[in-house]
Amino acid sequence: MNQPPLYIRVHPEDNVAIVVNDGGLGEGATFSDGLVLRERVPQGHKVALTDLAEGDAVIRYNVVIGYALKALPKGSWINEHVLRMPTPPELHDLPIATIKAPDTSPLEGFTFEGYRNADGTVGTRNILAITTTVQCVADVVQHAVDRIKAELLPRYPNVDDVVSLGHTYGCGVAIDAPDAMVPIRTVRNIALNPNFGGEVMMVSLGCEKLQPERLMPPGTIPIAAAAVDDAIADIGDMEAEDNGAAVVLQDEGHVGFQSMIDSIMRMAETHLKRLNNRRRETCPASDLVVGVQCGGSDAFSGLTANPAVGFATDLLVRAGATVMFSEVTEVRDGVAQLTARAANGEVAAAIIREMQWYDDYLKRGGADRSANTTPGNKKGGLSNIVEKAMGSIVKSGSSTISGVLSPGEKVKQKGLIYAATPASDFICGTLQLAAGINIHVFTTGRGTPYSLAEVPVIKVATRSDLARRWHDLMDVNAGTIATGEATIGDVGWELFRMMLDVASGKKQTKAEALKLHNALVLFNPAPVT
Ligand code: CA
């Protein structure tokens, strides 16, 4: 598209703005207000709107994102090489619950067609998930899954898919270390994701540290018959298998590989029969549990896609739904915004607790939050983590934060939730699955084919150029916001309605249709042995 030189300034107090034009702009390019570029500025990168002296604060989102390392006259390209990063905010003397959400009127009348579960959660897909207690069984389970899909699934037309919940945990780990609770509860809570209908099925090797009864203590599985709990207590004999709880490959009853596959397929069929009886029913939008995250971010993330997601987040919260945002290192520099939006002192304290835990975790590894930004982020115009964080937080909209989850915990309340996770796309997605999401929204500027097998992922492009090139991978183009073709509200509503259609199964996401999905990646802050 051939358009006149265009920049976007986010806040009236900002002294830098973002170049919008595809391909960037060359030296001498003149904007409608008379600003002239002193040098070439790539698309998504910052231009100085005023003359900056050495040491002057560089302001975007009305926040200091850095200090000029040298004099930078108006029209200069502002990038990571000419900025000194601010120190991270302290975790004391923060504003607590000082901001009220602007519009909290209920949004009524929106529904979707979902699978209601006995525990009150609602699935958006009907999937048989096979949980593994240890990596050793992964290939056997995958072999079985391929056969289940080919031979059994066609007989159960109401079941969408069969997935193996493979991971790298279970043995060779310090299973009693305090932080081991994070990977263990993650594997447990993923098995209980609403899309799996409470049909927990495990495959164990037999000698691993993460024994099935440790993974699923009695009482964990909400709807399964008492027989399943009993069976888990008796793991190691074939009785457990008869009750549909776990196949143990080292069980003496198994003679050869084929016997293991037969056992897994037999057990899978008992679960498939029950899953096949699930039917969609009309559910209020309040039954949505949406996880939002970003990956492969650029300077447009905070201008287009993330504000549109934030708009949709506010709609969801007003509709009574649950929305969780995550990625600790991408909110750390904006912690004061989060504590100010906390519903009360308890929620604010939980936010601070998670930030402190993560500061300590990074420090143990000899790093800090600045390790987050990637070469691609910088190429896309994000100079440092402060700028990236300010653009990332806007996914959370403006609603009150009503709860906080530690990594791997399951959500138990409605509203806007801060689910503390690393920013790594795969780990964040895995932890949000454990938290109980039934829809995932993912924004990207650089582009990533990211998706999940367990829950549909709606991908939002920050730029029209990406949406055009990756036309069969991106579901929503928020780039139209930068060019003025659409407003944040237009794209926010489009996304909200798309979530209802995708949740209902009326629409598949692009990655879902292509059957793209990433492996689960557990967050294990505990030692391995
Ligand atoms: Ca991410």
Task: Give the structure's gist in a few sentences.
This protein is α/β, with parallel strands linked by helices and 529 residues long. It has helices at 138-152, 181-191, 212-215, 226-233, 238-242, 257-275, 305-318, 335-341, 345-364, 375-379, 385-393, 425-435, 464-469, 488-503, 510-513, and strands at 7-8, 16-19, 46-48, 57-60, 63-68, 77-78, 83-84, 111-116, 122-123, 127-132, 161-165, 201-204, 246-248, 281-284, 289-294, 322-325, 401-405, 415-419, 439-444, 457-461, 476-477.
Descriptive overview:
The protein has helices at residues 138-152, 181-191, 212-215, 226-233, 238-242, 257-275, 305-318, 335-341, 345-364, 375-379, 385-393, 425-435, 464-469, 488-503, 510-513; strands spanning 7-8, 16-19, 46-48, 57-60, 63-68, 77-78, 83-84, 111-116, 122-123, 127-132, 161-165, 201-204, 246-248, 281-284, 289-294, 322-325, 401-405, 415-419, 439-444, 457-461, 476-477. With 529 residues, the chain is α/β, with parallel strands linked by helices. It folds into three domains: 1-87, Archaeosine Trna-guanine Transglycosylase, Chain: A, domain 4, CATH 2.30.130.110; 115-276; 284-514. The strands form five sheets. Strands 17-18-16-15-19-20-21 form a seven-stranded parallel β-sheet, with helices on both faces. It has a four-stranded antiparallel β-sheet with strand order 1-2-3-6, with no helix packed on it. Helix 1 (138-152) crosses helix 6 (257-275) and helix 7 (305-318) crosses helix 14 (488-503). The model has no long low-confidence stretch (mean pLDDT 94). Calcium ion binds next to strand 15 and helix 12. Residues 293-295, 327, 423, 425, 428 line the site of calcium ion (CA). Its EC number is 4.2.1.42. It comes from Caballeronia concitans. One of its GO terms (molecular function) is galactarate dehydratase activity.
